[in-house]
Amino acid sequence: MFCYVRCNSSNISKSWSTTSILRIATIKKSYLTSSQIYQSLKDKLTATIVNNEPLTPHIKKDFQKYWKLLPQQFSKQNNHDNETILNQIDMTTFMNFINKSKGISSTARGIYRREIIYLIKQNLTLVFQLIGLLSRQDESQATYLESSPSLSSPTDILHWCLNDSVRTADVVMAADLYLLFYKIYPHEKIYPTYQSRLINALSFDNPLYDHIHLIKYLELHKLWADKHLQYTPTPLQTSILSNKAISLRNSPSLSKTTLELLLDTHFLPNDQLRDDQIVIAYQLIDENYKLNNASGVFSNWLKIKDHYISITKHDPRIIYKIIKISTQNIIYRTICKEILWQLSPQYYCNNPLLLPAIIDYATEVNSLSLTKEIMNNINLHTKPENYQVVWFTKRCLSSLLKMHLKFNDSDGVDRVLRQINEKFGKHSQENYQAIISHLLQSQDIQNFAKAMNLVNKFPPETALLSYGTIINRLINWETKSNGNIDTNNSNANILNPMASINELLLKAHKYDPKHLNSLWNIIAALYFKRLLKLTFSVENQSKENDAINTTSLDIAKYIYVNCTQNSYPWSEIDSNPFSNPYPHKVKLKITNSNKFVILRNIAMTAIEQVRQDIFLWCCAELYKNGMSVKELKIHWNIMLKHSLRKIEFKDKKHVTDQLKSKEVKFIKHLLK
């Protein structure tokens, strides 16, 4: 899919040779620099201990830097005797420094614990001496030492350090010491008791440290997974860890990775999920729904859909969200088809949440036969006591209105409009939007004029969504005609589409000057759509034999970054970005609700224009905002491989197997 430059082999060899020499020189220089920094820090910190200087914030930072460099230096030397501070000074001096601060400073406690870890296999005598001195000074440490059979093995000493850390509430340090130990002594045995003890420690409620606790949980899981070990969290641990993940607001990727890990853990031999995992799956589906991440909703639903004997045992709010987002995303509509087949008419016809969503699905797929079947089921299976709470809700009447409009049923439209007036006295934004959308199905000047006249009569508070619908249609027509609308054509969509857009946005801005309405999120997405599609179409047409100018992609990336990194009140965004002649100055309303739509649009254009760099940037942004690599693979493969869209996937394994055999090559190469 992406093109590569063909180079002369001799040039490659020559270039590689020169580059390799430079790289080796750079690595050597970097190594020496790293060693020099390490030695300088070590000498400075040794002097701090010898002189019994106070642990100032600056000194604490130096210890952090030293600990970061030490594992690397430790692994480079065959002789480790001189690689720790304690080998350089006498025990009395060391203990004087530690005792002065260990009661109030986790850094002081970290110093002696890390020294012990590094000395385990180099100087056991020194380790035992240090532990003995520490234990004699602390009653709880002495009790643990006396109750232990012996401290004869490296893991015994590790466990002493872990217990000592948990005793002083240094939970993150306990995890770090554990990870450090198995990094420098990878062949030592792992004991399940201490797996559980560490996860227990990380599972305590502590909002200030939830973020780092989850990072450590993931690091521990990776360590065990690399060693082909698995730890099964208890229901209580699962609940607390999932609550920690859910509470994170500024780390969507960390939150999602944690929740998916907890969801994917197998607890029983038959691989059945626990009820607490179902709650996690529901939370993931809900979060992905809010982000408009259909791939995330799809993949998590596949994990749990068969958990219950009947689909009706699932939370209907979750089923509703799955149906709605799948209806809106054409490549995932097979999910709706399967759910509808599994739901009994007696169930969905009496559910005020699901029935409108199912009607919307039938309308969107333009299936008259399915619509007739649903309407027959409604008449047959709706209980009399549910008529008012199911049929005559705003949501259901709105869905029925869209359905009758779609199939040109004028009698049905009149009947529903009359029912809405009788029941509610006025129309909702969705009702007005449905009428406008129906008028604009074709590019007809008379219908467009009707739509504009009608929308001008709507109350301002209910007209904004209709503005978005009109602007979307105008942009679609403009891009289809490559920006060259024939003003002499009777089917031209008003002489100047930009004038119509400007008229609507001026009215919208007048009513909503703070730009709080969701219309402005829609306008942001439409701005990118027009920028990418129109520019690409025009350039592609005008440069048939030349390389396509992909500058619009760079502009789109710049605008997105500028709008998401710079903080400004929504009142300052462009009320009409389409009229701004300076793209680099455009301000748009980009939020979690439209980020995924915008980024996927840019990424799709990057694929069309063979811009691998922009595509990967979009994927990185999607990942940062909560879309996992697995979900990215699922989305782009289903989007680009039409045969995958037709498959009714049974479970997550079925998806994995199908992707292996049908995966798009460049997606497989780029997303690993």
TrEMBL record:
One GO term (biological process): mitochondrial mRNA catabolic process
GO cellular component term of the entry, any: mitochondrion
Highest taxon, organism lineage: Eukaryota
GO molecular function, one term: mRNA binding
Name listed for the protein in its UniProt record: Uncharacterized protein
